[in-house]
């Protein structure tokens, strides 16, 4: 079932056991716009099935927030205009030439172009894989694009992010709603999760420019202003405490600065920033 956020905005909650991210629907007087296409044909069909139950204008646009498979693999199903930023399009280059049969998929997994979870999702949730070919985008934008759905404007913009360097947000000024995709999350390099220290403050600055009261996140569904403020505060205080590759030192610095022990979120962030220091030290070696 879809969650209704306002008169014109709905979303399908993320489903972590299936690696399905949050999908959004924004409806104007004439057209509707989908935020992220889903991780498979089946995910997209499930979403479209729910959309059909509503009396809303046809889906004319699908925005892909970044080039991670779980956000775009369902995009063919909408028969809509696919929109993404130019870096996302570049990063997806390989995908347009992929074959989706078992042997090819195993080759991509062996050469680390694809993870096992992605392969299994494709095997279970994309029918007719012998003929499956991922669509190309119809609109590629650089920094910013405004899409008018009929008395409802969606602002698509690239932001600086700790997750990827190709993050697009979708902001609906009328409703003070922002779809962040995965932009506020950590990232993984060589199987190590880390939070890019040099991107944290620029990202918060970019996101806080939008006057929003509802924040939709790729794998959490929805946060209000207070929850986002807590999230930023915990991230920033963890970031401030990490100045080396030592977690012990970071925890000590955190406790001295905050006069308390770190909670579970903060510990996760501290480790994420320490891992980032580790990766940076390897780069400069
Ligand atoms: Zn992602």
UniProtKB/TrEMBL annotation:
It catalyses: 3',5'-cyclic UMP + H2O = UMP + H(+); 3',5'-cyclic CMP + H2O = CMP + H(+). Gene3D superfamilies: Ribonuclease Z/Hydroxyacylglutathione hydrolase-like (3.60.15.10). SMART domains: Lactamase_B. Keywords: Hydrolase. One of its GO terms (molecular function) is hydrolase activity. Residues 20-219 form the Metallo-beta-lactamase domain. InterPro entries: Metallo-B-lactamas (IPR001279), NDM-1-like (IPR050855), RibonucZ/Hydroxyglut_hydro (IPR036866). The keyword Repressor does not apply. It comes from the Bacteria. Counteracts the endogenous Pycsar antiviral defense system. Phosphodiesterase that enables metal-dependent hydrolysis of host cyclic nucleotide Pycsar defense signals such as cCMP and cUMP. This is Hydrolase glyoxylase. It comes from Paenibacillus xylanivorans.
């Amino acid at each position: 079932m879809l969650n209704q956020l306002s008169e014109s905005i709905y979303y399908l909650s993320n489903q972590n056991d299936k690696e399905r991210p949050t999908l959004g629907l924004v409806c104007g007087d004439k057209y509707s716009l989908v935020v992220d296409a889903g991780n498979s044909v089946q995910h997209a069909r499930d979403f479209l099935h729910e959309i059909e139950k509503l009396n809303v204008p046809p889906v004319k646009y699908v925005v892909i927030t970044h080039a991670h498979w779980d956000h775009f693999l369902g995009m063919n199903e909408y028969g809509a205009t696919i929109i993404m930023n130019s870096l996302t399009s570049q990063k997806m280059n390989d995908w347009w030439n992929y074959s989706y049969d078992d042997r090819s998929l195993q080759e991509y997994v062996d050469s680390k172009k694809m993870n096992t979870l992605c392969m299994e999702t494709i095997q279970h949730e994309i029918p007719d894989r012998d003929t499956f070919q991922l669509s190309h985008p119809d609109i590629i934008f650089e920094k910013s694009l405004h899409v008018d759905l009929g008395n409802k404007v969606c602002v698509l913009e690239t932001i600086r992010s700790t997750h990827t360097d190709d993050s697009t947000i979708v902001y609906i000024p009328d409703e003070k709603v922002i779809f962040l995709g995965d932009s506020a999350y950590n990232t993984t390099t060589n199987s190590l999760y880390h939070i890019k220290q040099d991107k944290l403050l620029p990202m918060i600055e970019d996101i806080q420019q939008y006057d929003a009261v509802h924040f939709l996140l790729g794998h959490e569904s929805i946060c209000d202003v207070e929850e986002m403020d807590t999230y930023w505060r915990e991230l920033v205080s963890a970031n401030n405490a990490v100045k080396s590759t030592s977690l012990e030192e970071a925890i000590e610095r955190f406790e001295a600065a905050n006069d308390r022990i770190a909670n579970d979120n903060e510990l996760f962030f501290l480790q994420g920033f320490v891992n980032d220091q580790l990766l940076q030290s390897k780069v400069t070696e």
